[in-house]
Write a structure and sequence with these properties.
Layout (H helix, E strand, L loop, with lengths): L5 H11 L7 H7 L4 E5 L2 E4 L4 E4 L2 H4 L8 H13 L12 H13 L4 E7 L2 H18 L7 E5 L8 H6 L3 H4 L8 E4 L4 H4 L5 H19 L4 E6 L15 H12 L2 E4 L14 H5 L5 E4 L11 E6 H9 L14 H16 L2 H18 L7 E7 L2 E6 L15 H11 L2 E2 L1 E3 L2 E4 L7 H22 L3
Parallel strand pairs: 3-13, 5-6, 5-7, 7-8
Antiparallel strand pairs: 1-2, 2-3, 4-10, 9-10, 11-12, 12-15, 14-15
Helix pairs in contact: 4-14, 5-14, 10-11, 15-17, 16-17
The structure holds 3-[O-phosphonopyridoxyl]--amino-benzoic acid.
C-alpha cells in the first residue's frame, strides 16, 4: 500500500469516499480524522495523537482493541477455509460451533440462530421472519410491526423503517405497516409524572396503538432494551414488564434488539436479562465479534422456530456471507474471552459501578441537565437551563462543539444532538475510567467557555 501523509489521505478521502451519516461539505472543509492503530481502549490518529475511545468504536469493541487471539483465529481459519456458504444443505464447523455457543449463552427459549453480517440485516430478517411466521400461522393479515419514535434498528430499508428516526425516513421512504409509538424518555417527556408512572403510561401506548391498528393486524413489537443511538434512553423499570404484559395479552411477538445491549454491555449477556424481557426474537451484532469482523444474527425463539421449521417449506432469505467462517471463529473466540476473563461478571460487580459513580459526578456541571447511565453506557444531556430543562437552540450545535473539543483533547465521546454519550470497552480499568471522566469534564468546561456559560 502506498504511504500517504495525513493531508494526502484527507484529500483522497474527500475526493472519493462517501462516508456514512456525514455532511460531506463539512468533511471537505475540516478534513477527516484518520485513525491508524489501536490498543486496549486507546486509538492513535495519523498525526500520532493518542485518544481514549469512550465509544468502543461504535458500541462494539467489547473486549478492547489489540486482542491477538482474535486476529490469530481469523488468520488460521482463512488459511484453512476462508469461505464457504450455508445455503443448499451445506455448512462448516465454525457456523455450527458458533450457533451452539450462542444458544448456550442466550435465554432458554432461544435454540436457533440465523446468521447475518450486521445488525441492519438482522432487522431485515426480523421483518421477513415475523411476517412469514404469521402467514404460516394462517394469519397473513398480521403484518404490522410496532416500534418507537427515535428508535435505531439499522440503515437498510427495513432497518430504517423499523427505526423511528424521521430524518432517515425522509430520505428514501419507509416500508408499509410499520408503526411508531412514543419512547420512554422521562427527562424530556415525563412532565409531572414520576419515572415509574411515566414508564407505565408510555408502555400503555402500545395497547392503545394495537387497538387503533386492529388487533388482527398487529404482528410484533420491537424495542432496544436501552435505546442507544437515540441518545441513551433508559426506560423506567416499570416499562418493560408492562410491554411484556401487553404483548402476551394480544399474543404478539416481542423483539428485543440486542445489537448494542448484547454481549455484556449492561453487565449481563443480554439487555433482556437485565430488564427481565422474555423476547421471541433477538437481533444481535456488534459485541458478538467485538467488531473485529462483521457478523450479526437473529436469535430465534422456540415459538417462531417451531412454526418456521415445522409448518414451513423454505425460508426464502439469506446472504452470501451468512455465517462466514472467519467471522464465526472470531465471534466464538470473543465469546470465549468474555467467559474466561469473567468480563461480564466484572462489568456487573466492579467496572460499571465504578464508571457510573464517576460519571454521575459530572451532574454538577453547569451544562449538564441530566446525567444518566446503566452498565457500560452513559449520557450527559446538555441544557441551557438546568432548572427548567430548557434546551439550547438547535443551530447553536452545542453537542458538536463539545464533540470537537473531545476530539482535540484526546477523547472520543459521541454527540446525539446535545446529548453526549459514552459506551466504552468492557475491559476499561479504573484508571482509564478516571481519565475518561476527567477529559469529559475538561471538554465540558471548554464548551461552557466557548458558549459563554460558567
Ligand atoms: N440495532 C441497533 C439497536 C443498533 O444500535 C443496528 C441495529 C444496526 O446495526 P449495523 O451493524 O447494521 O450498523 C444498530 C447500529 C451511532 C450508531 O452513531 C449506532 C449504530 C450504528 C452506527 C452508528 O450511535 N447502531
Amino acid at each position: 500500500m502506498p504511504s500517504y501523509n495525513t493531508k494526502q489521505l484527507q484529500e483522497i478521502d474527500g475526493q472519493h469516499h462517501l462516508h456514512p451519516f456525514t455532511n460531506h461539505k463539512d468533511l471537505m472543509e475540516k478534513g477527516s480524522r484518520i485513525i491508524t492503530k489501536a490498543d486496549g481502549v486507546y486509538l492513535w490518529d495519523s498525526d500520532g495523537n493518542k485518544i481514549i475511545d469512550g465509544m468502543a468504536g461504535l458500541w462494539c469493541i467489547n473486549v478492547g482493541y489489540g486482542r491477538r487471539e482474535l486476529a490469530d483465529t481469523a488468520h488460521r481459519q482463512m488459511l484453512k477455509l476462508p469461505y464457504y456458504n450455508n445455503f443448499f444443505q451445506t455448512t462448516h464447523p465454525p457456523a455450527i460451533e458458533l450457533s451452539k455457543a450462542l444458544v448456550d449463552i442466550s435465554p432458554p427459549q432461544f435454540n436457533h440462530v440465523f446468521f447475518t453480517n450486521s445488525g441492519s440485516e438482522a432487522n431485515d430478517t426480523v421483518v421477513r421472519i415475523v411476517r412469514h411466521y404469521w402467514a404460516l400461522e394462517g394469519k397473513p393479515e398480521k403484518t404490522v410491526i410496532i416500534s418507537r419514535e427515535n428508535a435505531y434498528h439499522g440503515s437498510t430499508v427495513a432497518g430504517s423503517s423499523l427505526g423511528g428516526m424521521k430524518w432517515m425516513h425522509d430520505q428514501g421512504g419507509i416500508l408499509t405497516d410499520i408503526e411508531h409509538i412514543a419512547q420512554p424518555y422521562w427527562y424530556r417527556n415525563g412532565g409531572e409524572l414520576t419515572p415509574e408512572d411515566f414508564g407505565l403510561k408510555t408502555a400503555q401506548a402500545l395497547e392503545t396503538r394495537i387497538k387503533e391498528v386492529g388487533e388482527n393486524r398487529v404482528a410484533a413489537f420491537i424495542g432496544e432494551p436501552v435505546q442507544g443511538a437515540g441518545g441513551v434512553i433508559i426506560p423506567p423499570f416499570t416499562y418493560w414488564p408492562e410491554i411484556q404484559k401487553i404483548c402476551e395479552k394480544y399474543g404478539i411477538l416481542l423483539i428485543a434488539d440486542e445489537v448494542i445491549c448484547g454481549f455484556g454491555r449492561l453487565g449481563e449477556w443480554f439487555g433482556s436479562e437485565y430488564f427481565g424481557i422474555n423476547a421471541d426474537l433477538m437481533p444481535i451484532a456488534k459485541g458478538m465479534s467485538s467488531g473485529y469482523l462483521p457478523i450479526g444474527g437473529l436469535m430465534v425463539g422456540d415459538r417462531v422456530a417451531n412454526t418456521v421449521i415445522n409448518k414451513g417449506s423454505d425460508f426464502n432469505h439469506g446472504f452470501t456471507y451468512s455465517g462466514h467462517p472467519a467471522a464465526c471463529v472470531v465471534a466464538l473466540e470473543n465469546i470465549r474471552i468474555l467467559k474466561e476473563d469473567n468480563i461480564i461478571e466484572r462489568v456487573k460487580n466492579k467496572t460499571s459501578p465504578y464508571l457510573q459513580q464517576r460519571w454521575s459526578g459530572l451532574g454538577d456541571h453547569p451544562l449538564v441537565g441530566e446525567v444518566r447511565g446503566i452498565g457500560m453506557v452513559g449520557a450527559l444531556e446538555l441544557v441551557k437551563n438546568k432548572e427548567t430543562r430548557e434546551p439550547f437552540p438547535k443551530d447553536q450545535n452545542v453537542g458538536m462543539i463539545c464533540r470537537d473539543f473531545c476530539f482535540n483533547n484526546g477523547l472520543i465521546m459521541r454527540a446525539v444532538g446535545d446529548t453526549m454519550i459514552i459506551s466504552p470497552s468492557l475491559i476499561m480499568s479504573n484508571d482509564e475510567i478516571d481519565e475518561l471522566v476527567e477529559k469529559a469534564r475538561l471538554c465540558l468546561n471548554l464548551t461552557a467557555k466557548e458558549i459563554g456559560i460558567s
